[in-house]
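Observation: inputs received (chain + L4RZE5RM).
Thought: call the complex predictor directly.
Action: predict_structure
Action Input:
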Amino acid sequence: MNGPAPRAVVCDIEGTTGSADHVRDVLFPYARERLTHWLAAHRGQPAWERVLHATRAHAGAPDLDERGVAATLAAWSDADVKAPPLKDVQGLIWADGYASGELAGHVYEDVPPALARWQRAGIARYVYSSGSVAAQRGWFAHSDHGDLSPLLCGHFDLANAGAKRDPASYLAITARIGVPAGATLFLSDVREELDAALQAGWRVIGVRRAGDPRGDRVPGHATVPDLHGVLPDP
Ligand SMILES: CSCCC(=O)C(=O)COP(=O)(O)O
Ligand SMILES: [Mg+2]
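Observation:
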C-alpha cells in the first residue's frame, strides 16, 4: 500500500466483516415478523413516536396510521431499502433478540484477529454500516466470536454520518474521528461506497467473500477475499 500508513480503519458490516446471507436470511425476517408487535408494545413511547414520525416523513405520507407504518416498514424490509426509520426499528428489535440469546452476530473468523492486530499497531478501528448504531453494537457485542466491543473505537450509521454512497458522509466521519482522510482506510463489498470514500480522499480496499454471487472482485477496486493480509503485523 502506497502513501502514509493508515491511522484508522473503517469497516462495513454486511458482506465485509459479516455474512450477507445471515443478514438476509436471519436478521431481516426476525425484525420483519415482529414489526407489528413492536409498534403495539411501544405505543406512545419516545421510540414509537420517533419511528412513526420518521416513517411518515421518509415515505412522504403524513397521514399514515400505525398499521400503515408497519406495512411501509415491511415493504422497505422486503426491498432492502436503506431507510433510516427501518434501520432504527430493526436495531431496536434485534437488540431484544441479542439480549434474549435468540440472535448472535455473524462475524467472519478473520475479523477478530485483524481488529486485534490493528489495535496492537495503534490503528483506530471503526464501523460504518447502514445498520443503526444500536444494531452494530448488538452485532459485535453478541457475535459468534464473543464480545468484540473492546476492539472497536466507534460506530457510524445513516443517522450520524449519512448515506454510504455520498462522499459527504465520509467527510463527516473524517471530521469526527480526527484522522486525515488520506490516513483512513475503508473496507467494503460495494463499489459505490468505495467510490464515495475515494472521492472524499480516503484509501479503500474492496472485500469479496468466497461464494459471493457478485463475483470475487469489486469492480474498479483492489479486492481481497478476507482481512488476513490487510495491514499485517510488520
Ligand atoms: C448489524 S447491521 C445489519 C445490517 C443492515 O441492516 C444493513 O443494512 C447492512 O448494511 P451494510 O452497510 O453493513 O452493508
Ligand atoms: Mg456491505
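Thought: report the result.
Final Answer: Residues 12, 14-16, 188-190 surround magnesium ion (ligand 2) (CB under 6 Å). Residues 59 and 125 are 34 Å apart (CA to CA).
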